[in-house]
């Protein structure tokens, strides 16, 4: 994918992508407040955003808005990496952000007492894999100066935070960011191609489904770290918003959460139909049977209730990545009866 260019090309590509995202963000609706009845949603790449695909495909926000006597205009945009998503949210160009729990905790901490960004809901529970095409890399301790690990956003993405959590377990909290210097920002599709081609210095990719599963079809790619083994079943990807949006748009906010809950029920009960929706909406080049092999198991749970997020929050405060310590997961999620069993 990057013949003869090696890792500088990866960095240039990542920079170009970031620049493109910034330009795209500047073309979105200005930061001025808008009336109830409009919501702008940012999603990223992968099956972990399937609930949003269902919401979009079945026009569930519009449906639940009409039940409240409201015609809701929904705008969708796709970004890559929690940093870009957080920037867009704080700039006022999106209303609902889709990213990892790591980026949520970062922006919750930075806006504490001001914009008060908090979680709206989870998108489900899924294992993420750290992959490598370097046969010498069996554990995270084997990564060295010649290795590069792709993540959606360096330092703040959920993949970066998982890597830091693993490093702290390996070497102690003082060295939690020991592997950050090996990471580069690259969207999952490009990182998957680079890893499987083996033509660059990219030897690692902290991925998500279905990209991690597609990469593992290559005989040269193997799993170095499974986040379920690291933390147990957890909700890696969530949706969040500002307190201002929630307060000023109560009907729109309610319609969104109702829509998401309906999508979660649909996807969990009929994973076959959910797989068809994902392929149809995203145009992903993966067959239904192959996709079902990924999602139709006990490790995949589509649910709006966040699960096992607090250990990461506690860790990030302990190592100084968060200034404010949440007393519980409820500090960084808006109250909602559908999230009552969260953690």
From TrEMBL:
Residue ranges the record marks as coiled coil: none
Per UniProt, the keywords (alphabetical) are: Signal
Source organism superkingdom: Bacteria
Q: Does the keyword Signal apply?
A: yes
Tell me the first and last residues of the signal peptide: 1-35
PANTHER family membership: ABC TRANSPORTER SUBSTRATE-BINDING PROTEIN (PTHR30024:SF2), ALIPHATIC SULFONATES-BINDING PROTEIN-RELATED (PTHR30024)
Q: What is this protein called?
A: ABC transporter, periplasmic binding protein
